[in-house]
């Protein structure tokens, strides 16, 4: 049978519209790696070019980024889209249960699109849910139910409805082609969501859980992952000898599992170096060497992914009310004074970790009682749509309220300064500093005269007794006697003694020599060598802290156990 020119023209026009719709689908569907948004793009593409209304139902597992063991068991209405609203479709977010004879279940069972030209005559349609289905028939006439299949996995079902007129076989083919393209994009989004969930879980697992007990700083923190890829930002709060505390913020450049895993390695190493009581510039030097070694040991031999890590390390001393800081290519901290003045200390930037061969410089600043130190990663201030100087001024305005608690400050900063759609992770650490009461500090200075050891020891016992610490006096007296005697015999002037009464009692003896004693087991014939063993037995912990000139030997005694 020959077709007339009008019929040929109609077929040609229909074919052209289908090609245009498929071309549009290739650009509109899959623009994001979000499962829900990809489903919405399929519906928006099909209306009104193919259908008047579209519903898409996906299993809860797929929405979470997982594979669904039984897609029919947990289907949820994900998208309802059409030329107008108000139709009695099951709303988005509700669970969907299809009966055994419905077109949706038949298409999922067969893996092929099911066409129902006239829903009033469709087998099993009214049996699904008679009352709402009957109401829907007043608005829709024809249906194509298409399974969303990708790589052999059932991801859900898409239903295309027409209010007037019927779908044909060509429409069914077009609907199946659109659904196939969308299913691949949905599966890509699902896989990405799954990977991102795993990386985010790893990242959060590697970050600190809770904060250590200490009185030097009141701390609040936030971690905000990027909308697209999770990166390698981290923070840490590290109690140090002498009532001091270390504050650490770092960022591994890059995203994904490798960055998160590298972050965990660097955070663990940084904490270890800090607990060895290295000053901030030396901690960064050790981290720089570590990152360089990780790059050299890269199994691919490309050295990619680790170089570009940045770090800022600050050590606050509540007895001196000072903070020693150093940074490696990291954004500068913000310092909030008690009067509300906000400054960015002039801290040498230093090179990013991993470059090697370049020094790091530490700077000491005064931090009076009630000041706040704000550390953050570059995701807070760097954004391609904003000028960094403008953002730093916004941060200054947000921080100019010293009366706010650190928790409130964290939230205000994220609400007013952080990008609405962050492209990079954000780690934020806010610390309000507290000074150690001068009445809890005792200090003496003496020359290298053995006769003075007894005088300082007696003065220390009196000081402890005045504060009701008589039970601690015996252990402290023996510890001080040993440490001061060692400094007089083997150290160099000036020799200083200090007691710090905080949650524990800390005994410190410093001198100008860099030679540190070592614990060893004395032989039965040795006349000496048992002093440090005694110190170790009487204290909870002890150690050595090196100064620019000299060292400090310290011992910490628990007040409830002595």
What does this structure look like?
The chain is an alpha+beta fold and 562 residues long. The protein has helices spanning 5-28, 35-46, 60-63, 103-110, 125-128, 130-136, 169-206, 257-275, 280-296, 388-399, 406-416, 451-466, 470-490, 531-538; strands spanning 53-59, 75-82, 114-116, 142-150, 153-162, 217-224, 232-239, 245-252, 310-317, 322-328, 334-336, 342-343, 363-366, 372-376, 426-433, 441-446, 495-501, 504-511, 541-546, 551-558. A 5-stranded antiparallel sheet has the order 2-1-5-4-3, sandwiched between helices. Strands 6-15-14-11-12 form a 5-stranded antiparallel sheet, covered by helices on one side. α2 (35-46) runs antiparallel to α7 (169-206) and α13 runs antiparallel to α14.
In a nutshell, what does this entry contain?
The protein has 562 residues and is an alpha+beta fold. It has 14 helices and 20 strands. The strands form four sheets. Strands 2-1-5-4-3 form a five-stranded antiparallel β-sheet, sandwiched between helices. Strands 6-15-14-11-12 form a five-stranded antiparallel β-sheet, covered by helices on one side.
């Amino acid at each position: 049978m020959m077709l007339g020119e009008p019929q040929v023209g109609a077929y040609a026009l229909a074919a052209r519209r289908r090609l245009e719709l498929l071309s549009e689908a290739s650009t509109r569907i899959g623009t994001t790696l979000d499962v829900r948004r990809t489903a919405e793009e399929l519906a928006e593409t099909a209306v009104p070019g193919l259908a008047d209304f579209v519903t898409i139902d996906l299993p809860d597992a797929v929405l979470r980024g997982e594979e669904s063991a039984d897609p029919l068991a947990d289907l949820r209405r994900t998208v309802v889209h059409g030329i107008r609203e108000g139709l009695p479709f099951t709303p988005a977010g509700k669970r969907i249960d299809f009966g055994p004879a419905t077109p949706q279940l038949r298409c999922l069972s067969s893996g092929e699109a099911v066409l129902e030209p006239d829903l009033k005559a469709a087998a099993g349609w009214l049996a699904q849910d008679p009352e709402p289905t009957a109401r829907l028939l007043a608005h829709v006439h024809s249906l194509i139910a298409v399974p969303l299949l990708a790589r052999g996995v059932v991801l859900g079902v898409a239903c295309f409805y027409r209010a007037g007129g019927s779908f044909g076989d060509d429409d069914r083919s077009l609907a199946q082609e659109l659904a196939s393209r969308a299913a691949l994009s949905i599966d890509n989004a699902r896989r990405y969501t799954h990977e991102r969930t795993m990386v985010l879980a790893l990242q959060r697992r590697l970050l600190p859980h809770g904060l250590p007990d200490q009185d030097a700083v009141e701390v609040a923190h936030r971690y905000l992952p990027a909308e697209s890829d999770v990166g390698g930002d981290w923070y840490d709060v590290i109690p140090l000898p002498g009532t001091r505390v270390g504050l650490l913020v770092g960022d591994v450049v890059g995203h994904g599992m490798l960055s998160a895993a590298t972050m965990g390695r660097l955070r663990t190493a940084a904490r270890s170096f800090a607990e060895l009581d290295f000053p901030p510039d030396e901690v960064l030097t050790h981290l720089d060497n570590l990152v360089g070694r990780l790059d050299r040991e890269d199994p691919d031999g490309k050295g990619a992914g680790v170089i570009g890590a940045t770090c800022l390390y600050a050590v606050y001393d509540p007895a001196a009310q000072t903070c020693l800081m150093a940074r490696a290519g990291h954004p500068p901290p913000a310092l909030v004074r008690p009067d509300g003045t906000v400054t960015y200390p002039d801290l040498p930037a230093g090179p990013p970790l991993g470059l090697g061969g370049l020094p790091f410089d530490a700077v000491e600043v005064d931090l009076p009682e009630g000041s706040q130190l704000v550390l953050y990663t570059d995701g807070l201030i760097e954004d391609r749509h904003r000028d960094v100087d403008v953002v730093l001024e916004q941060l200054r305005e947000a921080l100019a309220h010293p009366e706010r608690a650190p928790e409130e400050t964290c939230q205000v900063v994220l609400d007013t300064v952080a990008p609405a759609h962050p492209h990079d992770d954000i780690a934020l650490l806010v610390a309000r500093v507290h000074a150690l009461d001068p009445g809890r500090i005792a200090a003496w200075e003496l020359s290298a005269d053995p006769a003075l050891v007894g005088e300082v020891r007696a003065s220390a016992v009196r000081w402890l007794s005045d504060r009701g610490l008589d039970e601690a006096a015996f252990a402290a007296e023996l510890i001080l006697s040993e440490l001061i005697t060692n400094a007089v015999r083997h150290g160099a002037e000036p020799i200083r003694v200090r007691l710090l009464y905080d949650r524990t009692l800390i005994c410190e003896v410093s001198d100008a020599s860099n030679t540190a004693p070592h614990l060893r087991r004395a032989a039965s014939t040795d006349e000496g060598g048992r002093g440090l063993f005694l110190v170790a037995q009487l204290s909870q912990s002890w150690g050595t802290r090196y100064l620019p000139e000299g060292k400090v030997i310290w011992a910490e005694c628990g007040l409830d156990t002595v």
